[in-house]
Structure formats: C-alpha cells, structure tokens
Amino acid sequence: MKFQLLENIDDKDIDILKEAYDDSSVKRFIEIDKENFWSYVTETENVYFYKVYLGDILVGTAQCELINNVLYFALVVFPLYRNNGIGYDIVKHVIGGITGLHFSRLRVSIDEANIASLSLFKKIGFVQIGRDNLLIDFEYVI
Predict the structure, then answer these.
(1) CB–CB of 138/121 below 8 Å?
(2) Mean pLDDT rounded to a whole number for the chain
(3) What is the pTM of this model?
C-alpha cells in the first residue's frame, strides 16, 4: 500500500478523484463543496490529502487534518475496491505512521447509517466519544 500526498489541483489523478467523490455511495456519507474542496485539501495548512494505491491502482483516499496533536481523519475506499480489507489497512497504516504526521489521538466522525465504517473503526479499537445529530465521533489513542 502506498500513500501519495495530493499536492495541487493539477494532479494527474484529479479527474479520478472527482469522479469517485461524485459517486452516489460516497456522496451519501461525505458532502464536499465541489467548488472549493480540492483547493482546500491542497492549499490549507495542516490539511493533508493522500491518494492511496494498491500497487499501481488508486483504491481510495485518506484526508487528515492535524490540530493540537489530534489527527482528524476521513477515509474513502472507492466502490470497486470495498469489502477487501483496504479500509482496515489504510487506517492501520495511518495509525502506524505512514503519513509521517505526529499525533497522539486519531478522531473520526461517522454517519450513523454508515454501518460498514462504524464496524471498521470499532474493530480497530476506536471508542465513541460523542455524537452530533447523525454523526458519531470516535477516537483512537496512540
């Protein structure tokens, strides 16, 4: 598994990323501002957006925002590659330090209807720390 930082909106994979984020199964749980999202993740300090490859195949993304030693995290596994343990591997790689970012806690917010993600993060050892409407907040302490 290889993580590659998305450095600018002229990246060779930007069209693939835009298409993936426009897929109904992704849009169901992750809303983005199409006009500003890609600039936000490439130009904002302490925001890191990684393309995740399995071999030479782009299979998903990991968005990280580092604030006060807490890494806020969002994960997308592209529809064609789901249910193969890729999400689990991505999270374990982030916990293991593949990004080079230094943090003591990892946090995610998951839509209560996203049963697969809820199961994944609980399986890895994340614990629920809060709730805001339909979003459930989880944390993993390093």
Answers:
(1) yes
(2) 95
(3) 0.93
